[in-house]
């Protein structure tokens, strides 16, 4: 019999109009990945281009969680936008490093550091008039 771990909690805040901060708490695995995906899709639908993923309260993440992060990274790049991982726990950081995800998706130690990276990115062809 499968015993469910702690349920996933995702809190979404908007530090800026086009930036969504998703604070994730709990196991990010095959059982909870769909819920995480829905939160990200909802923010994409509402016009967010930059995604800050606070993983400081995620003790475990499997390939399901990584695949969602890589998928939203690809979608955000086309906008153009960005994805930043913030303060992953040591276990999650190890997975990100071993799989090379941390080479592709920037890892920051704080929300402020991630926002600085967003500001430093060149803006794409969709310039505002």
Strand order in the largest sheet = 1-2-3-4-5
Q: Mind telling me the C-alpha Rg?
A: 14 Å
Mass-distribution shape:
globular
CATH homologous superfamily descriptor: STAS domain
Strand content: 15-25%
**What series of H and E elements makes up the topology?**
EEHEHEHHEH
Give me the secondary-structure category: alpha/beta
CATH topology: Transcription Regulator spoIIAA
| Main pleated-sheet profile | 5 strands, mixed
Low-confidence stretches: none
Q: What's the architecture, going by CATH?
A: 2-Layer Sandwich
Q: How many runs of DSSP E, i.e. beta strands?
A: 5
**Number of discrete domains:** 1
Number of helices: 5
Q: How much is the average pLDDT?
A: 90
The amount of helix comes to: 40-55%
Protein name: Anti-sigma factor antagonist
InterPro entries: Anti-sigma_ant, STAS_dom, STAS_dom_sf
GO molecular function, one term: anti-sigma factor antagonist activity
Pfam family, one: STAS
Element layout with pairings:
Blueprint: E1 9-16, E2 19-25, H1 33-45, E3 50-57, H2 63-78, E4 82-86, H3 90-99, H4 101-104, E5 107-108, H5 111-120
Parallel strand pairs: 2-3, 3-4, 4-5
Antiparallel strand pairs: 1-2
Describe the structure.
The structure is a single chain. By secondary structure, this protein is an alpha/beta fold. It has a single domain, classed as STAS domain (Transcription Regulator spoIIAA, 2-Layer Sandwich), CATH 3.30.750.24. It is about 40% helix and about 25% strand. It has five helices and five strands. A five-stranded mixed sheet has the order 1-2-3-4-5. Strand 2, helix 1 and strand 3 form a beta-alpha-beta unit. Helix 1 runs parallel beside helix 2. The radius of gyration is 14 Å and the shape is globular. The termini are far apart. The mean pLDDT is about 90. It comes from Streptomyces toyocaensis. One of its GO terms (molecular function) is anti-sigma factor antagonist activity.
């Amino acid at each position: 019999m499968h015993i469910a771990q702690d349920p996933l909690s995702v809190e979404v805040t908007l530090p800026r109009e086009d930036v969504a901060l998703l604070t994730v708490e709990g196991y990010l695995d095959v059982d909870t990945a769909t819920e995480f995906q829905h939160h990200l899709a909802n923010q994409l639908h509402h016009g967010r281009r930059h995604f800050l993923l606070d993983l400081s309260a995620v003790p475990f993440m499997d390939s399901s969680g990584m695949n969602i992060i890589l998928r939203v990274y690809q979608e955000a790049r086309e906008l153009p936008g960005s994805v930043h991982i913030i303060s992953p726990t040591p276990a999650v950081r190890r997975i990100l490093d071993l799989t090379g995800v941390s080479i592709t998706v920037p890892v920051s130690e704080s929300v402020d550091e991630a926002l600085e990276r967003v500001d430093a990115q060149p803006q794409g062809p969709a310039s505002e008039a």
